[in-house]
Amino acid sequence: MPDWKTRLAVTVQSKDGNVPPTIVTPIESFTPTYATPVTPIHSIEADNVGALVHPQTATFTMTVKAIGNSAAMLTQLAIAATKFQISLAEQKGTDWSFKQLVFDDCLITSVNPSNVVMDGVPIATFSGIVLGFTDSKTEIVLPP
């Protein structure tokens, strides 16, 4: 069992070129969710005679500390409804299962800033969809 010493980096780049590749920092969490629904097809003469494959979907939630430029940049992408690319990759270490995950044509669907408190840093939570979640547009790089 490896010791988890890997640090990941989330990079955002707008599709229109207005935002160059930028590492989102400081980031609390990045949670992608994939849905690849399949419904079994049954018949009166047999079970599981086939499957109905529904469209795949992907969403994400990103929680960012509201210090530095990242929260403002992501809010600007949300307000302008600008498509962007998210890249999740190893920044340091080699424990992670993937070398890199790239999601194309992302859009932020909601922004939820936290309350400002006296003893901590406020955070902003960004939720969105990945329109480019297809086998030809989603780049998954595995380690050698």
CATH superfamily: Hcp1-like
User: Into how many domains do the coordinates divide?
Assistant: 1
Overall structural class, as computed from helix and strand content, comes to mainly beta
Mean pLDDT: 87
| Beta-strand content estimate | over 45%
Helix content range of the residues, please? under 10%
CATH topology: Pnp Oxidase, Chain A
Order of helices and strands: EEEEEEHEEEE
User: Given the structure, what is the number of helices?
Assistant: 1
| Counted beta strands | 10
Could you explain how this protein is built, in words?
Strand 4 and strand 5 form a beta hairpin. The longest helix has 10 residues. The chain has a single domain, classed as Hcp1-like (Pnp Oxidase, Chain A, Roll). It is mainly beta. It is built from 1 helix and 10 strands. The mean pLDDT is 87.
In brief:
The protein has about 140 residues and is mainly beta. It is built from 1 helix and 10 strands, in the order E-E-E-E-E-E-H-E-E-E-E.
Write the layout of secondary structure elements.
Layout lengths: L6 E8 L7 E2 L3 E9 L2 E4 L8 E4 L3 E9 L4 H10 L4 E9 L7 E14 L9 E8 L8 E3 L3
Antiparallel strand pairs: 1-2, 1-7, 3-6, 4-5, 6-9, 7-8, 8-9, 8-10
